[in-house]
Amino acid sequence: MNLEQKIKEEALRLGFAACGIAEVAPAESEAIYFDTWLANGMHAGMTFMENYRNVRLNPAGLLEGARSIISVALNYYPADLQPQDVPQLAYYAYGRDYHDVIKEKLNELVDYIRREVSINARCFTDSAPILERYWAWKAGLGWIGKNTHLIIPGKGSYFFLGEIVTDLALIPDRPMESMCGKCTRCMEACPTKAIEAPRTLNAGKCISYLTIENRKEIPEKLAPLIGNRIYGCDTCQQVCPWNRFARPTTEESFKMKDELAEMTADKWYALSREQYTRIFKGSAVKRAKYEGLLRNIANYKAINFRKEEEQNTNTYK
Predict the structure, then answer these.
(1) Binding site annotation covers 208?
(2) Range of the domain at 155
């Protein structure tokens, strides 16, 4: 095997579902899209997206002498789901924080490469100004769907992405053509119509943004549309036909904690700071902070209360 093949084989051995290689170069085809998205304010309160533009559009700025990007995907699709009658978390938040899990695996992959050749490298996973989905596409892992998720053929979109930026000159893989076709199920199913055009997500309407990154009150018009979600949203992935190929992850770290699985609606309503700290220790849910999660739970409770009132009214008519 050549070095590229060896790297991919080792990535699979470490548990990654896919691995590909791209040449470090300016992301020219993405620049207009990215700049337009920012100019239209679709990043909402995520002002950090305005920073480090040059690095976002050219990862050469992340490592001196950078020549290649090794892109990987790690499956997080859960084997067991929360009951539907309780407040819902996005699937990716069921287990341990993916940043830690992927970083560990990427470091192992770098160590393996170093045993083969001399290498300078930096590892990233949603932790640097780098267009992860773009580079995963350039590395041939899949294509960016209309819902903005990377879709891997025959596997779906329930994947975390990670990158190794290195000074090695590796043979790049070919980008993949989109296979979304005429399908618009994700756009039609989005509760808040946040996908305003193919690959154009208005974060200010997105339930994931509203329940995680958003530090303000949820807008009054959007609050009822959030439904039973208290951290993130999976709707645009759940309706995607390509996710019929999704298979449960074998990564033990991503499995739901027992205490989380036992949470009822009443337990969520009474969630204390101590419980929050214990249940979500080492979890991505910490991103929303305790106060943000309470805000989301209160919204869920208000929606349920209105539903019960409507049902009672209809019963006694």
Answers:
(1) yes
(2) 1-317
Strand spans (E) along 131-278:
143-144, 150-151, 159-166, 195-197, 200-201, 229-231
Cβ neighbours for 27, distance < 8 A, ≥ 6 positions apart: 34, 56, 57, 58, 131, 134, 135
Contact indicator for 211, 291 with CB cutoff of 8 Å: no
Q: How far apart are CA 245 and CA 155, in angstroms?
A: 5
Active site residues: 126
Asked if 156 and 245 count as a contact pair (C-beta separation under 8 A), the reply is yes
Residue 1: its pLDDT value, please?
A: 82
Cβ count within 10 A of residue 95: 22
| Beta-carbon count within 10 A of 169 CB | 11
Residue 305's pLDDT is: 79
Contacts of 277 (CB under 8 A, 6+ apart): 290
* pTM of the predicted protein model: 0.94
For the chain, the straight-line distance linking the first and the last C-alpha, in angstroms and rounded, comes to 74
Write the pLDDT tens digit of every residue in 185-231.
999 999 999 999 999 999 999 999 999 999 999 999 999 999 999 99
Q: How many domains is the chain partitioned into structurally?
A: 1
Q: Was 233 annotated as part of a binding site?
A: yes
The predicted-structure confidence for 118-157, as pLDDT tens digits, reads as follows 999 999 998 889 999 999 999 999 999 999 999 999 999 9
Eight-class DSSP state of 148: S
Beta strands in 206-274 (DSSP E): 229-231
Return the SS3 of 232: coil
Q: Determine whether the annotation assigns residue 56 to a binding site.
A: yes
